[in-house]
Amino acid sequence: MKAIERIVGTMAPLPRANVDTDQIIPKQFLKRIERTGFGPFLFHDWVKDPDFVLNRPEYAGASVLVTGPNFGSGSSREHAPWALEDRGFEAVIAPSFADIFRNNCLKIGLLPIELKEPDVAELTEIAEFDPSAEVVIDLDEQTVTAPNFQAHFDIDGFVKHRLRHGLDDIALTLDHSGAIDTYEAARPAFMPDLG
After folding, report:
1. Secondary-structure class of domain 6-167 per CATH
2. What does the pLDDT look like over 10-30, one tens digit per residue?
3. Phi, psi (deg, nearest 5) at residue 67
4. 3-state DSSP call for residue 185?
5. Phi, psi (rounded to 5 degrees) for 170
């Protein structure tokens, strides 16, 4: 997982509420065993519409998705954040997220940012009016800045630490490898050898 300090890029506006994980990545694409390669199937049913936001050339390369409340609801598939990340998104901004979706994002370093609904609506307008408008997300300051816009977001201190240092669950465990080795060396001989 890569460390996050600042995300700088453009925004793709998707002002829809209750976008569930089956809309983000339909079930027929969940057979892959890798964590990569899901990007081409992102919003599979919606991209059939030539006017869908991700089909429009002015939003190609957007790294921040700005969307509606309750994003990522439905099943708990981790493939949804994988598909967003694989498509090039580094952050998703919404008024609210489904809990499991938010947690799955944080485990891979895709930053879910909750802002008040009027702030999300303003960012959506900025992105619709000027697709080249740059957004800056500063994790240290916990701010989202765009032309004539700035908002503060909350994030748990430990989660922020993990993201700042690029620590997934395995990396967190490996941070304690010295203590684990010491424990294993002191284990009684009658216990199974895990090495």
Report:
1. alpha beta
2. 999 999 999 999 999 998 888
3. -140, -175
4. helix
5. -70, -45
The structure tokens listed for 54 are 């991700």
Instruction: State whether residue 1 is helix, strand or coil.
Output: coil
Q: What is the pLDDT of residues 33-56, one digit of tens each?
A: 788 889 999 999 999 999 999 999
Tell which wins on pLDDT, 176 or 150: 150
Measure the CA angle with vertex 21, ends 17 and 24; round to 5°. 80
Structure tokens given for 165: 């240092």
Q: In the chain, where are the structural domains located?
A: 6-167
Q: Please, which residues have CB within 8 angstroms of residue 98's CB and are 6 or more apart in sequence?
A: 21, 70, 71, 72, 73, 74
Which residue's entry shows tokens 């954040």?
81
1 alpha carbon, distance to own chain's centre: 12
Say how many residues make up the chain: 195
Token pair in block for residue 108: 């891979």
Report the C-alpha gap between 148 and 90 in whole angstroms: 22
The CA–CA distances, whole Å, from 3 to 102, 108, 142 equal 17, 10, 15
Radius of gyration of the chain (CA): 19
- The model scores a pTM over 0.70: yes
